[in-house]
Write a structure and sequence with these properties.
Number of domains: 1
Largest sheet: none
Number of helices: 12
Family: Belongs to the EamA transporter family.
Keywords: Membrane, Transmembrane, Transmembrane helix
InterPro entries: EamA_dom (IPR000620), EmrE-like (IPR037185)
Pfam families: EamA
Helix content: over 70%
Number of strands: 0
Strand content: under 5%
Shape: globular
Protein name: EamA family transporter
Structural class: mainly alpha
Length: about 280
């Protein structure tokens, strides 16, 4: 069950990142975050009201609030790093986010077996290669590396926090709703501050209604990924769930290949193969 839900997480996050990347070509990144998360919050609000999940409110919701505050910082740092530096460096480096939940699992006493350790090493190496790392060319700015590390730390922290935010299905709905409301509040405040400084808030011509389904897909895929990750982490070792969930860059690369006809470099294809091998080792370990 852990492997299934963790792999579903990587699929959903990979597609959400792909969709978000397409939207940011025509819209400010912060606007994409706020609009997509607002749609997700509205849908979750309806689900929470329909299921009576309000009764699950408790101290654990503070983990959801914390995840909601950290998430926008991680997203914006990641987008900024992608704008400043080569994606072939930024994307693989961001997968260091897996170190946070793995560390939490080890602190909590999890001890993966030898086969799982091998699977973790192979899968993480595959994800790094799937990002298409550039081994030559101009040096990457320290600011780019710094922003990427901030994003990785933020993503990993969200992984760990959302796994602790609930213990029941209704509680998970409520936790995800609280997280998204906090996301919107924090992102909205940042967007307002950016507008006050003269920053771009809307694309030329304003937001198009035709783009609403795309915003909705990104927001809902992201929230669904948080949910499936929480389930995976609660029903199995966090170390395994975190590694399998971190395979989303492979999904993003394959989506770009399928929808945009972007060619996979040899190193990326090899990375995807290693990631699959690591997945099999983890699933059978």
């Amino acid at each position: 069950m852990t492997a299934f839900f963790a792999l579903a997480t990587s699929l959903l996050w990979g597609l959400a990142d792909f969709g978000g990347g397409l939207l940011t070509r025509r819209n400010p990144a912060l606007t994409v975050v706020v609009v997509s998360q607002s749609i997700a919050a509205l849908v979750l609000g309806v689900i929470v009201a329909a299921t009576g999940a309000w009764g699950e409110a408790g101290p654990r919701l503070w983990f959801a609030v914390a995840a909601g505050l950290v998430g926008p910082v991680a997203m914006l740092s990641f987008y900024k790093a992608l704008a400043l530096g080569p994606m072939g460096v930024v994307s693989p480096l961001a997968t260091l986010s897996v170190a946070v939940p793995i560390g939490v699992g080890l602190v909590l006493g999890e001890r993966p077996g030898l086969l799982q350790v091998a699977g973790i090493a192979v899968a993480v190496g595959g994800v790094v290669l799937a990002g298409g790392p550039r081994l030559g060319g101009a040096a990457v700015q320290r600011r780019t590396i710094g922003l990427t590390l901030v994003a990785a730390l933020g993503f990993g922290t969200v992984f760990a926090l959302i796994a602790e935010a609930s213990t029941t299905v209704p509680g998970l709905f409520l936790a995800l709703f609280v997280q998204r409301v906090t996301n919107v509040a924090a992102g909205g405040a940042a967007l307002y501050a950016s507008a006050r400084r003269g920053g771009e808030v809307l694309p030329p011509g304003g937001l198009r209604w035709a783009a609403v389904p795309a915003f909705a897909f990104v927001g809902l895929a992201d929230v669904a990924a948080n949910g499936t990750y929480a389930v995976a982490a609660q029903h199995g070792p966090v170390t395994v769930a975190a590694v399998l969930a971190s395979l989303y860059p492979v999904v993003t690369a394959l989506a770009a290949r399928g929808f945009l006809s972007e060619r996979l470099r040899a190193v990326q294809a090899a990375g995807a193969g290693l990631a699959l091998l690591g997945t099999l080792l983890l699933a059978t370990g």
